Amino acid sequence: MKPRTVLAIARKEYLHLLRDFRSLYLAFAVPLLLILLFGYALSLDVDDIPTVVVDYDNSVQSRDLIARLDATDYFNITARFTDIAQMARYLDHNWAGLGIVIPPDWRRQLGADRQSPLQLLIDGSDPNYAGLTRSYMLSFFARYNRVQLEDFLNRKGAEPIHPPVDGRIRVWFNEDLESRNFIIPGIIAIIIMIVGAILTSLVIAREYENGTMETLRSLPVTGIELFTGKAIPYFVICLIDVLIAVLMGQLLFDVVIKSSFWLLLLATGVYILVALALGLLISAVTRSQLVANQAAIIITYLPSLLLSDFVFPVVNMPWVLQQVTRLVPATYFIDILNGLYLRGLGLAQLWHSYAVLTIMAAVLMGLNMLVMRREGL
């Protein structure tokens, strides 16, 4: 491999990128936009659930219950009605996610030490949102019932009851339980696939469509030289995007890497090679920019977003899809990112994911060489 030839091909690709506004926009503007959107807009945390109340009892106890509920971080009492039809209207129009109906004799039942039922109406159109709302309510009423039981025993003169099991919870790694702490690192894998795979999927196909592939065959250029020269500009762009994403994550969202920054660069470099090799392979096989672009989205971007344990947990997927996720490079890169950002792990714990990415890069580059050799390069 001649360095002069590689640099000449890389220079040609750089000039093309500088003259192609759409490629520059996809290379720099879209990653920045994704970081801002995913960081600010995408949140898996459920809090301040809009709640409406119909209090037929209107007693001191019912108002105290509502006040306690509104004082939590999870519920926000947005409206109080005297008619259940008004509450149903709010739920129908998605203006509230939870409705509470307190019956007229609720205080009397509570004062008589009897069961005092309440009606809770949860909007189940979003199962995840509804499930968390239900869990929050069960936890709230468990604490409320414990307080009521203690008051009852105190009135009866009983000794204080100490629960036999005292569960003391401590959260490791993501102590604040903020979803952005794993969303921001995960978006780095998506950015690399967008810039690395989707952009490079047009490189070889463009040579076919412009009729310049025959010229390349007539030049003293080997397949490895063409592959390396075409990949260098996009490798640099991907690396710049990753560094910007790391910096923005720290400055805007206070997401700081806990482990070694150099291990992050090592994993990023290998993952970029995987993305570039995959994009160039798609480009060489399809020979059409339109087909290559669509294939790159289906093969690289969508699996990286949906099947990489980034947004949707792999353990909840069917067994067949769980096996498919093993073929998605982003699965291993996100595992490395979570280990470096959240868990503070090192190479001794993450070597398996590093090794799999390295093997994927070698296999994809080998396939590219076979395709280039078939084309006479």
Question: How would you describe this protein?
Answer:
- With 377 residues, the protein is of the alpha/beta class.
- Helices cover 67% and strands 6% of the residues.
- It contains 15 helices and four strands.
- It has helices spanning 3-19, 21-41, 60-71, 84-92, 106-111, 127-155, 180-200, 203-210, 213-218, 223-253, 261-286, 289-306, 319-325, 329-343, 347-374, and strands spanning 49-55, 75-81, 98-102, 119-122.
- It has a four-stranded mixed beta sheet with strand order 2-1-3-4, sandwiched between helices.
- Strand 1, helix 3 (60-71) and strand 2 (75-81) form a beta-alpha-beta unit.
- The mean pLDDT is 83.
Keywords:
4-stranded mixed β-sheet, alpha/beta, 67% helix, 6% strand, 377 residues
Largest sheet: 4 strands, mixed
Radius of gyration of CA atoms, rounded to a whole number: 29 Å
Ends distance: 12 Å
Content of β-strand: 5-15%
Classify the secondary structure makeup into a structural class: alpha/beta
Low-pLDDT parts are none
Shape: elongated
β-strand number? 4
Mean pLDDT across all amino acids: 83
Helix content: 55-70%
Q: Total number of helical segments?
A: 15
What is the N-to-C succession of helices and strands? Answer: HHEHEHEHEHHHHHHHHHH
Strand order of the largest sheet: 2-1-3-4
